Amino acid sequence: MGRLALAALLALPVAAASASAASAAAGRGNPAGGSTIQTVAARETALHIPKPTGKLPIGMTSLYLKDASRPDPWVSSVKARELMVSLWYPAAKAGGARAAYMTVKESELTLKEAGVSGVPGDLLSKTRIDAVKDAKPAAKGRLPLVILSPGFTKPRYSLTGLAEDLASRGYAVAVVGHTYENVVTSFPDGRVAECAACEMPHDAAFWAKVDQVRAVDVTFVLDSLLARYPKLIDRSKIAMGGHSVGGAASVSALLKDARLRAGMNIDGTMDVSVPSGRLAKPFLLLGTEVRHSPGKDASWDKTWTNLTGWKRWFVVSGTEHASFTDISVLSEQLGIDDGADLPATRSLKITRAIVAAFYDQHLRGKAQPLLNDPGSRFQEVKSVGGTS
Fold it and tell me: Of 79, 105, 155, 302, which sits most exposed with the smallest number of CB within 10 A?
């Protein structure tokens, strides 16, 4: 979570919350900076991610991956790109020790980075999720794979609610932690990497680099997963998606990697344009009504015109940038107003349903009426347009 996104989560003063909203308006999730974070009172609240809606029990394992073929793009002294990935999947059976939402160290450093005191250091690590740690995968054939990328400064954990839901519906889901682009990444050997990219000027060239780095990360992660789990993943059914800059990076990834069959951008400004006629793969745009309706974000208007395959553009009224992630859900449980009019549990329900329908149609070949008329089920969702 970014400095101010987490600050809003833990009930900071109005000035800090306003800065967070300004940051989110960019659709990238980068910190706005410049606000003083004050001490907040400790709250004894049991945080949890709502149970997934699918019927299958799920497991999760954390993977450490090292790409020795390239140096880290953000820290020149690091000679190999190291990534942490959370892999979610249907489990052979229910029961067992629950997987951790994040490590205690990550919780401590995330809170410290936000300048938050007066709360337990392990507050975020105690968030309850549904997945069983390192559960045995269900032996029911190869699975479609969805690779998810979080927003800038956000940990891979911020997409847990979405990842768990897809896994409960029969998907393998890999959520990538892009090292040095989020507040903190802890590695299995105890090393910790903080956000080096946060300290750089955030101009157009910077955001284009973020997109390109993530596209390369995704290809490396896909190579690694296919090599490590040859019997788990269906090579013909692979797609990508993400939130904020993670969603925007789907364009670069789909242009780069032919194995990715479909892409999804949730509320992210498109920093790399789609060349006219170059992207015919199915693509979903899902965003806030206030920032991503036609005419609100020129990058979406241009992208929409240049997408030549199946496409849908939906906006959700009453949502804010974080509404599509765990951040909004946890804020709601803590009794904190994150600026959204739509309840976070409702936002998550809508997000889960639309995203699952998109991947079901384009990875499993199952027609989804919801994608033709989402307003019939969710009155908050407005369809801007689409083509078959």
Answer: 79
Q: Which helix (H) or strand (E) holds 228?
A: helix 204-228
Q: Where are the alpha helices (DSSP H) in 84-180?
A: 104-113, 160-168
Q: pTM higher than 0.85, yes or no?
A: yes
Q: Do the Cβ atoms of 308 and 336 come closer than 8 Å? A: no
Q: Give the model's confidence band at 27: pLDDT under 50 very low, under 70 low, under 90 confident, else very high.
A: low
Mean of pLDDT over the chain: 88
Q: Mean pLDDT lowest for which of 109-118, 170-179, 298-307, 332-341?
A: 109-118
Beta carbons of 36 and 148 less than 8 angstroms apart:
no
pLDDT digits (tens, 9 = 90+) for 124-163: 899 999 999 999 999 778 999 999 999 999 999 999 999 9
The pair of structure tokens assigned to 190 is 């105890």
The alpha carbon torsion through 13, 19, 20, 24 (nearest 10 deg) reads 160
Residue pointed to by tokens 């269906």: 234
For residues 176 and 88, what is the distance between their CA atoms, to the nearest angstrom? 11
Q: Mention every residue, 6+ apart, whose C-beta is less than 8 A from residue 77.
A: none
Cross-strand partners of 89: 59
CB 322 within 8 A of CB 345: no
Torsion of CA 226, 68, 264, 134, to 10 degrees: 50
Q: Which residues is 382 bridged to in the sheet?
A: 315
**113 closest CA partner among 177, 169, 44, 185:** 185
What are the E-state strand segments in 178-274? 184-186, 192-194, 233-243, 263-266
* DSSP SS3 for 209: helix
**What pLDDT is recorded for position 57?**
97
Which ranges of 231-372 does DSSP label H, i.e. alpha helix?
245-256, 289-292, 298-306, 326-333, 344-363
Residue 267 CB partners (closer than 8 Å, separation 6+)? 27, 243, 244, 247, 286, 287, 288, 291, 292, 321, 324
**Integer Cα distance of 331 and 59 in angstroms:** 25
| Angle (CA) 65 66 67, round 5° | 125
Q: What is the dihedral of CA 62, 116, 332, 293, to 10 degrees?
A: -80
Per-residue pLDDT tens for 58-75? 999 999 999 999 999 999
Place 28 in a pLDDT band, splitting at 50, 70 and 90: low
Could you give the percent of the chain with pLDDT greater than 90?
Answer: 76
